[in-house]
C-alpha cells in the first residue's frame, strides 16, 4: 500500500501503532474535538487485525493535558528552550572536557521511537565518544539479546506471529501472555478454538490468568527453567528425537547434551510425572513454539535460561519453520527497535559489535564521527552505582522512571538525587525520577510525534502524530539533535524531520548488511517524506530468500562458522537466598490494565477499576500463620527497603512465595514501590537484574485505622499507607495509619484542600467510626470514611455520589442498599464482577458467549475472558484486594 490514501481508513482516522506492549497493534485514531481521541483496532494491521486490549482501547482517555509537563524547567523554575538546551550542551561539554567522556551517561527507553533512539545512540557513542548509554531494556530483554547472540551470532527473533497459530503446541514459560500481550493471547485462543487439538503448556510458579487455556500448568520452582529445559534436552537425546539433518548446521551439541544429562532435575520442584508429561508433549509434537518473557529474562541465570530453551529447538531442528521455534515476546513497543539501533551499552548500531574494530570503523566513517568507544559502557545497574559513587557527573534520563523501576529503587533514587547534573525528559513532572532532576524537558508523547517502532516479530510500523504536542513539548529526537548541534556538530545532527532520521538509520543498516548481519533495511534508505508518511507495516528481512519471513530454518546462522551454537548450561541457585529474617520469595510482575509506573494508564478511570491498589498475593496457609486478614495490609521488608501492600489471600501462589505488581510509585502509593525490596543482583552475561526473586519478610501492618475517600479534586495525603487513583468523576483513596489524627475535620480540610467547605459528620468514637462529607453549595465535594477495620463500603457507589446532594453520602444504608457492581472485570464495557456473578447465579448466563450477549462483558477486547471463565468454572474469589 502506498500513497496517503491508506492513511485514513475512514474520514479523519489516522493509522498509528499502540503506545504500549510489544505486540505492536495497529490503531486507527481520530481526534474527538475535545482533546481526546477515539480509537479502534486497525483491521489491516498484521499484528492485530482489528483487535485491541483494554489498554489499547483506552488510549484515547490518556492523552489529555492534565499533569503534562508543558515547558522546560530549570531548578524548579520555568525556562525557555534556548536557555535549557544551551545549558544541557554546556554542562555535557564541560563535564566531558574536565572528566572525560565516561563521566557522562544517558539512560533511555524501549518506549522511545527508533528515530529517538538512533539520535541518542549516535550522540553518545559517536560524538561524546563513550558507550555509557543504556536502556530500561537492560531490565527487560537483555538476557534474550545475550542468549540469541550466543546461539545465532546475532540478536535475531527467528519466528513470526503466525507461528503461534500454526503450532500444535504452544509452551509459555515466564510469560503471563493473557495480561501482558493480550492480543497475541487472543490469537492463540482463537486458534485453539478453531483447532481443539492444539495444546498449551504454561510454566510459571504462579497460576496466572494465562493458565486458563493451559492443558498443563507446571508450577516450576522460581528460577529453575534451566533445569526443566535441560531435562527436556536430555530426553530429546535419550528418545532419539534429535534431528541429524539439522545437526550439520550446529556446533556444541555434545557439550550441551552432556550438561543436560548431568542436570539435577529435582531443582524444578516438579514431579517426575509432570516432567514426563511435558517431555511427551514437547517431543511428540513437531510444531512447537516456546514463548518466553520476563520469568526467563529477569534472572541471574536469564541468559542460560534462554539458551536452554534455544538448545531444545536447535537439537530438534524445530526453528524457523512454520509453527515452530523459540519466541521471545518483547515488552515495550520499541524494545526491538532499540536493539536494532544498538541502544544498549554493549551494542553498536544495526546489530553490529562495539568490540569489533571493523564494525566500529564502518560506523565511525558513516557517521563522520570524531570518536568511538572501543569498549562497552556501563550497564544499568553499574551505571547507577557509578552515579552513586560520583563517577557519572552528568546524567540524561529519557522516557523511563528508574527511581521506581530499578532494583534497589531507594538506593537508585538517592544516587540520582546526589548526581551533579540530572536532565529528565518526560511527558509529566509527576514521576519519582522527574522530582530529582535539575532540568526537566517536556517531551511530545504518543499520538503527538512521528516515528517508527518494531514489534516482537520484526514488523516495523509507524507511530503517527494525531494531536499537536501541548505547550512547548518537542519530540525526543528533536531535543537530542538540537543538543548535538549546540555542541558543535551541526551537520551530523541536522535532520528536518523524523523521516530524515529514519532514512539515515536505514542507510546505516546497509553498511551493516555488508558484514553479513541480519538487520538490513537499506531498501528504505531513499524513502521520501511522503513515503515515510504513508509507510505501511513491513517485516524485516526485506530482501533475499528469507524476505518477510523466518530465520534459521535453512540452517544458516550469523556466527563466524555460519553454524548455530548449542551452549552447555547448568542450573544455578537464585542469587538472593531466603533466610530466617527474610523467609519469603518475592515474585513481581504486571497486572492487566496498568502500564509500568502508571503515568499514562493511571489517567484512564476505567483502567483503575480492575485493581486499584498495590497488593501482595499470599497463600491462605501463610496468611493464617502470619495473622494476615484478607483486605488487611502487610508490611514487606527486603534487604534494601520496605513496602506496605494490601493483602490478597489466594492459592494462585504457593506457600513461601508471594507476588506483588510493580506499578505503584510516589505519586500513586509511596509505600507500594516494590523495587525497593528487590536486590540488584545481575546475570553475568547480560547484566539483567533478578527482578523476579527477591527475599522478603512479611508481617501484618499495624494499622490503628483504615480509611477510604472520594474527592472531586486530587487529595494530598500524609499517612502511613495511601493509594490514590483517578475515578470517572474524581479521585479515590485508600488509607491507613498507626494512629488516627487528633482532629479529623482539620485533617479532611487539609487533605482535600477545602478550607471553607461545610462538613457533615457522623462519628462513633467507641467503634472508631468516622464519616465526613465535605459539601460546597449543597454538593458533595469529598467524603471520608474511617474505621478500625478495612472500610467495607461499595467504592463504586460512593464515587458516584460526588457532585450529588451532600447529605446522602453519610447514610450508610444507601451504600449498603444498592447492588455493588464490584471491581470491574471488563474494562471496555465497565462490567463489575458482582454483576457477572449475579448473572451466573440466577442462571441468565452459563457460558462466556452468553455473558458477552447478556452484559457485554468480554465482547470487546477479550482481555477479561480468562477471568470471566474462572468465575464460570469455580467460585474463586475475585482477583482484587477489595475491602468492600
Ligand atoms: N498489562 C501490561 N502489559 C504489559 C506491561 C505492563 O506494564 N502492563 N509491560 C510490558 C513489558 S515492558 C514487558 S517486559 C512484558 C512482560 O510480560 P511478562 O513477562 O509476561 O510479564 P510479568 O508479569 O513481568 O512476568 C511473567 C511471569 O513470569 C513468572 N515468573 C516469575 N519467576 C519465574 C521463573 O523463575 N520461571 C518462570 N517460568 N516464570 C516465572 C511470573 O509469575 C509472571 O507470571 O509485558 C508487557 N506488557
Ligand atoms: N521488580 C520488577 N521491576 C521491574 C520489572 C519487573 O517485572 N519487576 N520490569 C522491568 C521492565 S521489563 C521494564 S520495561 C521496566 C519499565 O520501567 P520504566 O521504563 O521505568 O517505566 P515506565 O512507567 O514505562 O516509564 C516510562 C516513562 O516515560 C514517560 N514517557 C512516556 N512517553 C514518553 C515520551 O514519548 N517521551 C519521553 N521522554 N517520556 C515519555 C512516562 O511518563 C514514564 O515516566 O521496569 C522494570 N522493572
Ligand atoms: S496488546 Fe494491547 S497494549 Fe499491546 S499493542 Fe495491542 S492494544 Fe496495545
Ligand atoms: Mo519490559
From TrEMBL:
Residues 11-67 form the 4Fe-4S Mo/W bis-MGD-type domain. Belongs to the prokaryotic molybdopterin-containing oxidoreductase family. NasA/NapA/NarB subfamily. GO terms for cellular component: membrane; oxidoreductase complex. This is Nitrate reductase. GO terms for molecular function: 4 iron, 4 sulfur cluster binding; metal ion binding; molybdopterin cofactor binding; oxidoreductase activity. Its EC number is 1.7.99.4. One of its GO terms (biological process) is cellular respiration. It holds the Pfam family Molybdopterin. It comes from Limimaricola soesokkakensis. CDD domains: MopB_CT_Nitrate-R-NapA-like, MopB_Nitrate-R-NapA-like. Keywords: 4Fe-4S, Iron, Iron-sulfur, Metal-binding, Molybdenum, Nitrate assimilation, Oxidoreductase. Its cofactor is Mo-bis(molybdopterin guanine dinucleotide); [4Fe-4S] cluster. InterPro entries: Asp_de-COase-like_dom_sf, BFD-like_2Fe2S-bd_dom, BFD-like_2Fe2S-bd_dom_sf, CT_Nitrate-R-NapA-like, MoPterin_dinucl-bd_dom, Mopterin_OxRdtase, Mopterin_OxRdtase_4Fe-4S_dom, MopterinOxRdtase_cofactor_BS. Coiled coil: none annotated.
